[in-house]
Amino acid sequence: MLSRLKTTLGLAEALDKKSVLASLLSSEVLQRSTMFIAQHHKCSGLRRSAMFVDRPSYIPLLTERSNQMHGGYKHLAPPEQEPPPQMKTIFCARLLAGIVALSLLMGCNVRLPGQPTEIERWRAPADVSDFNELYTENCAGCHGIGGKLGAARPLNDPLYLSFVPDDALRQVISQGSSGTNMPAFSQQAGGGLTDRQIELLISGLRAAWSKPEDLGTQIPGYTASGSGGAVSGASAYQTYCAQCHGSNGAGGSAGSIVDPNFLNLVSDQGLRTTVVVGRSDLGKPDWRSNVAGHRMSPQEIDAVVDWLASQRQTSSAVAERIK
Ligand code: HEC
Ligand code: HEC
């Protein structure tokens, strides 16, 4: 699929066919964030193309990804700690300038999420105490503004906010989620946010987007209860998932969920969150509605997540495969 994508992108670029590129980039496959990043890994043309068709919301993420590949996630450093300019940095700066120019040209005056200007870098970041500013600068690049075009799950989802306890929010925002693109934000963990700012983000998320609603049932626990053992994950998969993801997970109407490019960039908790809460932005049902009138039991949720996680291959096997 990758080589097909590459060829098509190359062709579209060569022909200067903006519309072809635009539709490619908004295709379901590419909107599936983690897959998008994984594909970018092998297909650097995507970054250029995202810019070309004015989809700047992808860029911060792609930039993070390439930062990661070149020595770990880099939080904004104060100017005196800034690494010496290198080709890559210069390229990124040019790229960003290009995007800003492009969005101005197109009359859309959107600030690039997660990309403060040079002047803003000088402002003591620890002084920022406005939720919108904190969210836009640190989170929106991946989690989207208003739940749109985010590369990671939207956080403005009331169901998700009912599911996730404050402790878990604090943990993942402070420490990140290892093995995935979710960076650690606490200063102790090398990030750029104070504990107070992390608390402001948590209360701000809830104030802005929580909505008490009657779910008609108790929402399953955020973490696995460990009760799945007796239930077969493979058969729970057949009951609740196969109609959309195919009989072995490799894809039906909703695409593959056993692709190693995807599974190796998502944590078990990330899988669990998706199974319970769904992705309303992508038309993916939550635990109540995979099969009409037949919600998943806590045991079935545990078991299906275990089954899915067990499809993950080791990174060396993946490295072999994607060579
Ligand atoms: C570079 C991209 C990136 C940035 C920036 C980012 N996130 Fe994330 N975030 C992710 C990804 C990818 C995941 C899924 C990780 C996984 O699979 O567990 C995630 C997961 C999360 C989760 C856990 C979701 C769950 O399953 O419960 C929370 C909460 C979260 N992010 C909040 C934030 C907040 C708040 C910020 C800003 C301070 C932020 N993120 C910034 C990429 C990002
Ligand atoms: C009614 C159809 C439907 C059913 C049933 C369904 N899914 Fe999905 N699923 C989707 C759609 C649509 C997407 C989004 C595909 C895309 O990326 O555009 C999706 C995406 C996913 C993703 C990837 C989310 C991401 O972050 O990109 C996972 C993991 C997943 N499904 C797991 C499951 C599991 C496990 C089950 C069974 C418990 C299940 N799905 C049942 C439709 C379904």
Structure description:
The protein is mainly α and 323 residues long. It folds into 3 domains: 2-105, no CATH class; 130-209, Cytochrome Bc1 Complex, Chain D, domain 2; 228-322, Cytochrome Bc1 Complex, Chain D, domain 2 (Orthogonal Bundle), CATH 1.10.760.10. 52% of the residues lie in helices and 0% in strands. It contains 19 helices and no strands. The chain has helices spanning 2-14, 18-25, 28-31, 33-42, 45-52, 59-69, 87-105, 118-122, 131-138, 140-143, 158-163, 166-175, 195-209, 233-240, 242-245, 260-263, 268-277, 298-310, 315-322. Helix 2 packs across helix 5, helix 9 packs across helix 13 (195-209) and helix 12 (166-175) packs across helix 13 (195-209). It is globular, with a radius of gyration of 20 Å. The protein starts with a helix and ends with a helix. The relative contact order is 0.10. The structure holds heme C (2 copies). One heme C (HEC) is lined by residues 28, 31-32, 34, 240-241, 243-245, 254-255, 257, 271, 274-275, 279, 282-285, 290, 304, 308.
List the helices and strands and how they pair.
Blueprint: H1 2-14, H2 18-25, H3 28-31, H4 33-42, H5 45-52, H6 59-69, H7 87-105, H8 118-122, H9 131-138, H10 140-143, H11 158-163, H12 166-175, H13 195-209, H14 233-240, H15 242-245, H16 260-263, H17 268-277, H18 298-310, H19 315-322
One heme C (HEC) binds at residues 61, 64, 114, 138-139, 141-143, 152-153, 155, 164, 169, 172-173, 177, 180-183, 185, 201, 266-267, 269-270, 273.
